Amino acid sequence: MAGVAGRLARLWCSGALSSPLQVTRFPALQLHLCGPAMRASQEDFENATNQVKLLKKDPGNEVKLKLYALYKQATEGPCNVPKPGVLDFINKAKWDAWNALGSLPKETARHNYVDLVSSLSASSESSIQVTPAADRKQPGSDALVVTSQDGITTITLNRPDKKNALTTQMYHDIMLALEAASKDDSAITVLTGNGDYYCSGNDLTNFTDIPPGGVEEKARSGAVLLRDFVDRFIDFPKPLVAVVNGPAVGISVTILGLFDIVYATDRATFHTPFSHLGQSPEGCSSYTFPKIMGPSKATEMLVFGKKLTAREACTQGLVTEVFPDSTFQKEVWVRLKAYSKLPPNAMRISKQVIRNTEKEKLHAINAEESNILRERWLSDECMNAVVSFLSKKAKL
Ligand SMILES: CCCCCCCCCC/C=C/CC(=O)SCCNC(=O)CCNC(=O)[C@H](O)C(C)(C)COP(=O)(O)OP(=O)(O)OC[C@H]1O[C@@H](n2cnc3c(N)ncnc32)[C@H](O)[C@@H]1OP(=O)(O)O
Fold it and tell me: Which part of the chain is the ACB domain (predicted)?
């Protein structure tokens, strides 16, 4: 718990709380006790802590301190640490905020925290809404945030400083999240990214963690992971929507052929530079792309690494609809919320009728692509491209 609180504190107190005058004059907290019917569950609370990380608007110092205090009270109870010195402005402001909650019960603090996050989310332009309880496992790291509301489960890639590049942990977490979403009571599942990128594809540092079995072992396990990962998309039983909030690279583009709908901001681009990287197509794109856009356009993308704009990708049929960046989030979520109210069983069955005929073929293609890529990863062409990127000599 201290770790989460620490991260929250670091996240919000680093720059924003640098003015001690500003933070020390916030008014006393207006808190009220709530009855049993108003209590938030532990899961609501955990969802709210995830939601907080996705707020797009800075809520201001006072609110940040309120959140900090409520979080501490909800997780640790009344303030129990020594008061920081008067010159330690930031920690003193935080201590004051926590201490001001007195003996407020943990449950009430949890409820007030959820309430506060909920009001912030409603007023922010974030695409993600505060989530009610959903019967699902949370993935094991902050790099992926899963929320559920209004019949929509949203899986958000949350490594904006690394352009949402996919670590091996994230592949595993996405698989877990898809598994849970396939069983929860949501009607639609969405994959999106936090920050300016949708996803920059495979994290190239995945190549640096070589096990005792050497590079062959690494390539072998990488191919198994890739195959499992793509299999989950092939088999996903409910409508799967990509909300492409910015540029997309590599595997985040190829798997779009397995989504049911792809909405993109006009700022998005679609780039599969496999030859540049000494690699080969995956995500079933060797089959879905020629089918979607014809073999020649698919070759331009998958062999020559042509980067498509959102509008070009829409013309080619890879993207369903493009929205102006300024209204993207609003328009897309209004649309998805309306769709999510349709009868969920009918939607699921209709999706399966559309997709099931291809499933067996897609699994075979996935297996083949993964095998070919395993060999590619051992090639000089691939090694050189990865070393070049990691030594900052090359970018796409
Ligand atoms: C044998 C191993 C197997 C492992 C298991 C794998 C299982 C599945 C594999 C599936 C295979 C998929 C194939 C692909 O996805 S190919 C595509 C790979 N992606 C790339 O090559 C993109 C590389 N990134 C870039 O070219 C540029 O970063 C960018 C995306 C064009 C953005 O450029 P920009 O100038 O705007 O931003 P920065 O470069 O400064 O990026 C900010 C920081 O983010 C780091 N970053 C970005 N993308 C990646 C990435 N894909 N991998 C690792 N790191 C990435 C970048 O280094 C910066 O970090 P820094 O701030 O620390 O310098």
Answer: 41-126
pLDDT exceeds cutoff 50 at 13: no
Within 6 A (CB) of ligand 1 lie 162-163, 165, 168, 171, 200-207, 218-219, 222, 225-226, 249-251, 277, 279, 282, 377, 389, 395-396
Name 127's Cβ contacts closer than 8 Å, sequence gap at least 6. 154, 192, 243, 245, 329, 332, 333
Strands lying side by side in the sheet with 269-271 = 248-249, 269-271, 308-309
CB neighbourhood size of 354 (10 A):
11
Rg (C-alpha) for the chain, rounded Å, is: 23
| Per-residue model confidence (pLDDT) at position 53 | 76
What are the DSSP calls for 75-125, one per residue? Answer: HH-S--SPPPPTT-HHHHHHHHHHHTTTT--HHHHHHHHHHHHHHHHHHS-
Q: Kindly provide the ipTM of the predicted complex, given to two decimals.
A: 0.99
Q: pLDDT tens digits, residue range 338-380?
A: 999 999 999 999 999 999 999 999 999 999 999 999 999 999 9
- Which among 161, 200, 302 is the best mutation to test ligand 1's pocket, defined by most ligand atoms within 8 Å of the CB? 200
Tokens of 95: 């201590």
Report which residue type is found at 82: P
Average pLDDT, the chain: 85
Q: List pLDDT tens digits, range 70-121.
A: 999 999 999 999 988 765 666 777 888 899 999 888 988 998 888 888 888 7
- For each of the domains in the chain, give its residue range(s) and CATH number, in order of start: 42-122 (1.20.80.10), 144-394 (3.90.226.10)
Both tokens of 348, joined, read 């699921």
Give me the mean pLDDT over the 113-130 stretch: 63
* pLDDT (average), residues 34-42: 55
The confidence score (pLDDT) of residue 378 equals 96
Contact predicate 386/165, CB 8 Å: no
Centroid of ligand 1 to alpha carbon of 167 (angstroms): 10
* CB 193 within 8 Å of CB 249: no
> Residue 270 forms beta bridges with which residues?
248, 308
Chain center to CA of 255? 15
Q: Is the pLDDT of residue 307 over 90?
A: yes
> Cα(363)–Cα(360) distance, rounded to whole angstroms?
5
Q: What is the CA angle 79-80-85, rounded to 5?
A: 85
